[in-house]
Amino acid sequence: MIDNKAKPHAVHIKEAMTSGKRIPGSPDRVIQNPLSPTPLTRAWPGKNAGDVEYENRQVVNRTCADRFGPGWYEANKEHCDEYPFASTLEGAASDDFDFSVKLIPECANCAAGSTQNIF
Predict the structure, then answer these.
(1) What whole-number distance in Å separates Cα of residue 44 and Cα of residue 76?
(2) Does the structure show a pLDDT above 60 at 14?
(3) How far is Cα 107 from Cα 111, in angstroms, rounded to an integer?
(4) 79: closest CA among 57, 52, 56, 104?
(5) Burial level of 27, CB count in 10 A (0-12/13-18/19+)?
(6) Using the 8-state DSSP alphabet, how is residue 40 labeled?
(7) Nearest alpha-carbon partner for 57 in 17, 101, 14, 15
(8) Global pTM?
(9) Of 100, 113, 114, 112, whose CA–CA distance to 12 is shortest?
(10) How far from the centroid of its chain's Cα atoms is residue 114's Cα?
(11) From the CB of residue 60, how many other CB atoms can be counted at a distance below 10 Å?
């Protein structure tokens, strides 16, 4: 069950998966997003996880600065949420898929991250 604090994050994921872009990870992959019938794959240590996550976060940070302005965090006090997650092989640095970013409350992003770290 999703913590209510993480709801803005869940809304962002749904928006991303139903956007018509090549976004992987939909539970109803073919129905919701026929362009990307692909599950997410977590980058585990054997798959250079640290490098993958770092590269994904670099792309996300540049995109957020371009989209929301260089001082987006200071101006909004919100986190720039990304989907697919930075910890996946399908993240923002992937050439095979699109990605989405959205500003959400810091507490929502932290709650979602805590939940994801369980898996």
Answers:
(1) 33
(2) yes
(3) 6
(4) 104
(5) exposed
(6) -
(7) 101
(8) 0.81
(9) 100
(10) 14
(11) 21
Per the DSSP assignment, residues forming a β-bridge with 107 are: none
How many CA atoms does the CB half-sphere of 63 hold within 13 Å?
A: 20
List of E strands, 2-52: none
Give Cβ neighbours of residue 51 (< 8 Å, ≥ 6 apart). none
Backbone angles phi, psi at 118, to 5 degrees: -65, -35
Give the separation between CA 62 and CA 65, rounded to whole angstroms. 5
Chain segment 21-55, per-residue pLDDT in tens: 888 876 555 554 555 556 788 887 665 668 999 99
d(CA 36, CA 55): 22
Peptide bond into 84 cis (omega under 30): yes
Which amino acid is present at 7? K
Q: Which residues pair with 100 in a beta bridge?
A: 83
Residue 15 CA to residue 108 CA, distance in Å, equals 16
Would you call 9 exposed, middle or buried from its count of C-beta atoms within 10 A (0-12, 13-18, 19+)? buried
